[in-house]
């Protein structure tokens, strides 16, 4: 079995467009949530959303490279550019080596809806343009990035609802660990436009605390009333330890465990057993015990049932160990398909700079969270081992275990 | 619209869409090569023409368009005689 390490991270989110910006937001507990009047105008129940800047790639990519990129693809491109730059992966390296891509994404609603509108108006498929198909498919991110960066290894999209980004890390880790690939770009992307979120809003899953947008996302708090949708993209370069050492790369963290499970129950209501299995499996895979874990980046989205069940699952697995816990969704909102990847990036930033980001807006814990060590304040402490949870519709669960790299460990 | 205005409009949107300098456009130069167009780009050219001039190009018409001059002549002809079909599409 080979060790798997992270050598590059990139992030484009509502709390920052670079690792440095995001680090400051995490440390200072800064929210990226705003009120979006347009959502109200088109009939949303909640107009709250993460505010993510859409970068222009004109001058950075050719026209042919740009036309197939949907919103989430643009975010994924800029996050990947950052990750490759940090990992010191050049175009020449990508040309000469087999690098794969496994990226989480589960929609491209805006591209699909705009094509449909054009068809209805023009009644002519040729007037959709050449980019429509490449923007509209669920695999839009992997097909575009694999082409732009000339990737030659494994290449497919992982669609697993709000656990997509996390599973992409887990699957990439497995492939490298077992010797099938040396290096894979993993991550997750999420469109933020209102088309993508309307049907989710229709389930009454979103917080309606519109008077104070930055205080609306309250994971584990007794007064939480729903999640806040958000998005962007997060990319990680993961590779075998041998590959990283051969290249002389700086190692940011080690991926030591991946757990997964399926609830086998309701399509949208999570349970306790599924997440427990995922958590336990991740620790077994990592070869560690609960007391080894310093911090849990919880999935907790600020929905009443989801947070309650995750709290019980964590308590059941970790018992008296009481690792520090926070949900960064209190600041970012729920980054959905991207969340597992972005939260791994947030965790690596915290590990690097020795702090736990706060679970902001947490003043009165719900009953189930009382047993947990959730921090509403930034805690400056060494973090050796971090667990990151991600769960999604259909009962898909994923848990990633990250550890500070130490060459002397086996 | 006068022929000069049509040509000026074509050059403007070709330059903007396909990111070429207007100085690089020579009436006798090969359209596809100068703009580095592949088969996918031709789909976008159909979209752009429809947006700017309101008529739909039959993809088969591109067979007879080699130079910028051919392209200008084709668009001017289509605008002046919208009912006339091209030889290949008859």
Task: Provide an overview of this structure.
The complex is a heterodimer of chains A (410) and B (90). Chain A is of the alpha/beta class. Chain A has 15 helices and 15 strands. In chain A, strands 5-4-6-7-1-8-15-14-9-10-12 form an eleven-stranded mixed sheet, sandwiched between helices. A two-stranded antiparallel sheet of chain A has the order 2-3. In chain A, helix 13 links the parallel strand 9 and strand 10 (324-326). In chain A, helix 4 packs across helix 8 (140-148). Chain B is built from four helices and no strands. Chain B has helices at 3-18, 31-35, 39-53, 68-80. Chain B is globular and about 30 Å long.
Fraction in beta strands of chain A: 15-25%
Which residues of chain A form runs of ≥5 with pLDDT under 50? none
> Which strand order does the major sheet of chain A show?
5-4-6-7-1-8-15-14-9-10-12
Report low-confidence residues of chain B grouped into runs of 5 or more: none
Per DSSP E runs of 2 or more residues, the count of β-strands of chain B stands at 0
Q: What gap, in angstroms, lies between the N and C termini of chain A?
A: 10 Å
Structural class of chain B: mainly alpha
Largest interface: A-B, 12 and 13 residues
Mean pLDDT score of chain A: 97
Largest sheet of chain B, in brief, is: none
Summed up, what is this model?
By secondary structure, chain A is an alpha/beta fold. Chain A contains 15 helices and 15 strands.
SSE inventory with pairings:
The complex is a heterodimer of chains A (410) and B (90).
Chain A: E1 4-13, H1 19-28, E2 33-35, H2 37-41, E3 48-50, H3 63-67, H4 71-87, H5 91-96, E4 99-104, H6 109-122, H7 132-136, H8 140-148, E5 155-158, H9 164-177, E6 183-190, H10 194-201, E7 232-240, H11 241-247, E8 253-262, H12 273-286, E9 295-297, H13 304-318, E10 324-326, H14 329-332, H15 339-353, E11 355-356, E12 373-374, E13 379-380, E14 385-392, E15 396-403
Chain B: H1 3-18, H2 31-35, H3 39-53, H4 68-80
